[in-house]
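Dear colleague,

Following up on yesterday's call, I've attached the two folding results inline so they're easy to grep. Please treat them as preliminary; we haven't cross-checked anything against experimental data yet. The first protein's sequence and structure tokens come first.
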Amino acid sequence: MSATFSSQRFSIAPMLDWTDRHCRYFHRQLTGETLLYTEMVTTGAIIHGKGDYLAYSEAEQPLALQLGGSDPAALAQCAKLAEQRGYNEVNLNVGCPSDRVQNGRFGACLMAEATLVADCIKAMRDVVSIPVTVKTRIGIDDLDSYEFLTDFVGTVAERGNCDTFIIHARKAWLSGLSPKENREIPPLDYPRVYQLKRDFPHLTMAINGGVKTLEEAKVHLQHLDGVMMGREAYQNPGLLADVDRELFGRETLKVDTVAVVRSMYPYIETELAKGTWLGHITRHMLGLFQGIPGARQWRRHLSENAHKPGAGISVVEAALKLVADKIPQEA
């Protein structure tokens, strides 16, 4: 991580069913500096689940674990495990509005329980030395005044000793809207997040919600410490190739997206040998050539063939040939 910048300067949002380990490995081929997040993992899954819910590749670092839960003791146990496994940060989800999450008493509904959130953060901070952060909304339901937001942040910062907040600049409706609608219907309010930073200048604050370009990210960075990009980074991952140079000041050569695809081949071969289906990896790569002639053929070839039994590198290479010679070369 560039020493002159906060680790939160640019990150890719935790997205359920999207930012799995294959996605993160792929994103890391495009940007070395961006902070990556796991999908949200519940404390129950980590403590009681049969699988290894903390598994990741060292190549994904720097990497943060997002936890879902509201029991301070269970969160502390999971944070400790995360630190032992080498994660760079633990983040508490106080933003997800889905019914399933609410029923488990975590996610956005916790905004109404600032003292509990503070206790959760403190319990984790007491047992680990890595950063413990909060991702939250600007409000929930009718609890959407600026005073409510400042009370929440103030309580969690002071009582929980939390110094970093990632703010999704929309409120969440806990009933009546689906998670998808909650990402689109409540209006974005960037000025409210800017004001929050002015009122809490000692806290590290990153903004999330609706960021589609690196130019937009630069505007936010004039007001805040960091920007978290979500769906755009997933659906148009090619823009990540410019992050290290544009946002972190790294003097790097322009990333060759064709070379990025081929850099995935050893990883794909290893995963195929373990029984992973090719499509589970390539689904994250479909948007790489967005805006380039041949991108549709690339997507179609992978979509139609990567799920077939025995599909391997030859499928990816065939798809690549449909787009590679159409990519403009820099002089």
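Below is the second protein, in the same order (sequence, then structure):
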Amino acid sequence: MPDAVTPLASEGLTYAAAGVDTAAGDRAVELMKAAVARTHGPQVLGGAGGFAGLFDASALKSYDRPLLASSTDGVGTKVAIAQALDIHDTIGFDLVGMVVDDVVVCGAKPLVMTDYIACGRVVPERIADIVRGIAAACEVAGVALVGGETAEHPGLLGPDEYDVAGAAVGVVEAADLLGPAKVHDGDVVLAIASSGLHSNGFSLVRKVIEVAGWKLDRDVPEFGRTLGEELLVPTRVYSADLLSLAQDASAQVHAYSHITGGGLAANLARVLPVGLAATVDRSTWTVPAIFDVVRGLGGVPWSDLEATLNLGVGMVAVVGPDGVDAALRHLAACGLPAWVLGTIGADDGAAGQDIVRGTKGVHGGAVRMTGAYRTT
């Protein structure tokens, strides 16, 4: 017979004593339900609270060959800025943008999204703020938020720490699939402006700020606001506008690239076919102040900066030469600043510091960076 076990507490331990408050989780759900419901169209069945989200996919019957596109991502260490400022209703745009704008790269319409929040302690109002931001971004993207999970991890995360992640599924007709197979010699590369840092490279940005000794409440004249306000600017969500652009036959869209981790050249190379190269002119735009401040404050080399941050280009469209004017007009009508970034031509096989090819495991085309960046 084993020895008797002596309880650690006179009344025994409970889940609440271990640091998990299920009642707080229920309160958080009640606070977020209305925001989530606003993302639901008639295709969503059952509402919130089920073990799985249900989406009526009957519309897929009209497709000749529907391809499902899926993506998952997080926000990275940008959440540390939100936590330090105690502002949690914008980080959802970063999450949704990172996920659905990967789906739209191949021309797919995002249909459903789910989210996951891990936290050290459930504070209902904070969790609801996060999810309300996710839901608001889903409305902009035209995607239904059909499910989610909030997990309390006491002892693993601090009481005021959290991390967020999400996943989305979309659909595209096979004949309308965008990507390397549609890119040709003579195509034109268009840049579409970012809203700022978006959600990549914050480990570098935060380290620069730490070493410099800057505080988040510091007023920065170059930004016209505090450092914290600039860092927390939400990621621009492009998916609905870029779907409408892809459906505009006069724009001749052949490929999109989402400029996230790895920077412009590495991500553009992923959507080009072997044998072709994009020549990109760095002087075609003025790098926004936040990037130049990070560079100057940390003494960060331009080469490292452009391989880490978006430098003001959030998305890229590769279009046919006869579609440039129509594409730029369409993007302007959507309120998206855009400009001609470069052209597509034959890859001469050259190598060097300013040439990128074969990134992120993709055996694709090349990107040649030319010119010098302009700053304010």
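For the second protein, one point worth flagging: The chain has a mean pLDDT of 92.

Best wishes,
A.L.
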